[in-house]
Amino acid sequence: MTSSSPPGIDQLVDDFTPENGATWMVPGATSGVAPPTRSGSTTTASSWKIRRGDIIVFHGATWHASGANRTERGRMILWGSSAALLRNRSRTDSGWRSPKSSRAPDKRLSGFGSQSGLRT
User: Fold this and answer.
1) CA 4 → CA 7, 49, 85, 89, 112, distances in Å?
2) Model pTM greater than 0.90?
3) Over the stretch 46-55, which tens digit does the pLDDT of each residue have?
4) Which domains does the chain have, with CATH numbers?
């Protein structure tokens, strides 16, 4: 992994199925495969059926997206990310900010925070 593509690390709180918007990934996307079109169509994308409690780790540059949730129930995931893109590891004092992190709160730079899910 390079600093520009940290790993995706997710733990499923709910089952991910085709009906509730399972994650789609494009195999080989880190090897120069063309990105999906603006409409999101690609011939190589595949949907992953993932069970509650599973942990998935994938290369951060992999083209991936959530499918449409066609159920009445939301779904949850614990999403891990790296702050390496936001701060310099050798200068972790709170007085230093990179351009990318100038609006990020100290809590987020320390590795804590949450993001509300989107309903499709």
Assistant:
1) 10, 28, 7, 14, 20
2) no
3) 888 889 999 9
4) 1-81 (2.60.120.620), 82-112 (no CATH)
